[in-house]
Amino acid sequence: MDWTAVKVITSSEAVEAVSYILTNEGAVGVQIDDAKDFANLKPGRYGKYGEIIDLQEIPHRKNGAAVTGYFPRNVFVPELISTIKGRVAKLKDYQLDPGAGLVVSEAVNNKDWATVWQKYYHPLRVTSQLTIVPQWEDYQPSSANEKLIFLDPGMAFGTGTHPTTRLMIEALEIVARGGESMIDVGTGSGVLSIAAKQLGVGQVAAYDIDEVAVRSAKKNIDLNPVAADVKVGVNSLLDGIHTQVDLIVANILAEIIVPLIPQAFENLKPGGRFLVSGIIKDKADLVERELKGHHFVIDQKLRMKDWYGMIAHKAVEGQE
Ligand SMILES: C[S@@+](CC[C@H](N)C(=O)[O-])C[C@H]1O[C@@H](n2cnc3c(N)ncnc32)[C@H](O)[C@@H]1O
What we know:
Layout: E1 3-10, H1 15-24, E2 29-34, H2 35-39, E3 65-72, H3 77-89, E4 102-108, H4 110-120, E5 124-125, E6 130-134, E7 147-151, H5 163-175, E8 182-185, H6 191-198, E9 204-208, H7 211-223, E10 231-234, E11 245-251, H8 254-267, E12 268-280, H9 281-293, E13 296-304, E14 307-314
The structure holds S-adenosylmethionine.
S-adenosylmethionine binds next to helix 5, helix 6 and strand 9.
């Protein structure tokens, strides 16, 4: 019961739209089985990644398409399914055929998940400077400026493919000057801490409420010598943490960011930056209001697809 796979039976023409819906609802990976992809293939032809395809050996759909989204285990499945069903049915309004529109969920265990991942996860250039590389890929940077983040995402959120993570890496690139102290709240796979170290950030402490995430982050930090001195531990938000740092990053749902705001204020140096992501459109106003209410100044708002992020700084008393 470690992951929840939500499979949508749909038409070939709706594959892109359904993949978007699943990602938008928080799927960390999407797998497509589209009969159309197999329709014109002849046995022995080369596949997308250079492999020889034996149609007899690949189980595939004979008609229509199935799009499966993989969600972290903490999603509330009945609500998720009902939302996805509603959004798939609405595709008709955009002249897209939702096909059967059936939505089913199943639990996926660790072993199956790892296998799925390795098939669908490939190097991803997230910004002009940073590329995320699955641990098992042999990847050569295209220039000296391209820095690599090696990840084995395992069971933790944070493959770098999700818009909320990408927003945060962009925000980090905007603010990092080198040598800052930083806290990564809700580190997941550790991706943001590793990205920060690649951008020259100094001391980093990373926390997650989930022990599995902490183990995964530690494993990923071991894969990236640049991040060797990142400290990782189990902690809920910044409970019991009393320090003064230059940067705090948190890619968590808005509802969780809200109680973090006063804690972030307390743990930031005057002028220190608070980077938040994981905010859906409907909650952007709430987060902005709470930030301003706790003496943060919003420097920049970022958006990717339907996700929002913000760069704020702790107001300096007497100056702002
Ligand atoms: C959306 S993931 C972000 C992972 C990674 N930082 C990234 O940007 O891709 C959110 C993470 O926050 C963690 N989390 C949720 N509630 C938390 C809390 N109260 N305190 C600390 N971590 C929490 C989850 O376990 C999960 O790993």
